[in-house]
Design a protein that fits this description.
By secondary structure, the protein is α+β, with helices and mostly antiparallel strands. It has a domain of 78 residues. It is built from two helices and five strands, in the order E-E-E-E-E-H-H. The strands form two sheets. A three-stranded antiparallel sheet has the order 1-3-2, with no helix packed on it. A two-stranded antiparallel ribbon has the order 4-5. The longest helix is centred in the C-terminal third of the chain and has 9 residues. The structure holds iron/sulfur cluster (SF4) (2 copies). One iron/sulfur cluster binds next to helix 2.
Amino acid sequence: MLSQVPTQDACLSCGACCAFFRVSFYWAEGLHMPEHYTEPVTAVYSCMAGTNQPQPRCVALAGEIGRQVSCGMYEARSSSCKEVQIADAQCNKARAAYGMIPFTALDMPAPVNDDDFNQVS
Ligand code: SF4
Ligand code: SF4
């Protein structure tokens, strides 16, 4: 299957996972979020407003999916938001739903010899 290697800022031109899943979390996480950004799901779970519906889209997501997006509460986003990682199964499932090419997961070893690296221009 055709796939591509993600860039570090790949999410800024995607946003698919913010408009595909119900983004739910333990209700107390919502105490740190603007009230209109959350909705109750059960007695103990809340979700990002707009994501508990047949065509989900988080109300905090601004922009056009697949072109340019931003999160209106990135620093305060939920643990569920943080769980999705670029190129993981959820990421690629959401991307596929929007007709975007899946990302190839890279298993990069941690750099071990950069300490004395000096860039020469
Ligand atoms: S679907 Fe993947 S690439 Fe797109 S915003 Fe979510 S984590 Fe980023
Ligand atoms: S809070 Fe931000 S990161 Fe989380 S689903 Fe909404 S737009 Fe996406």
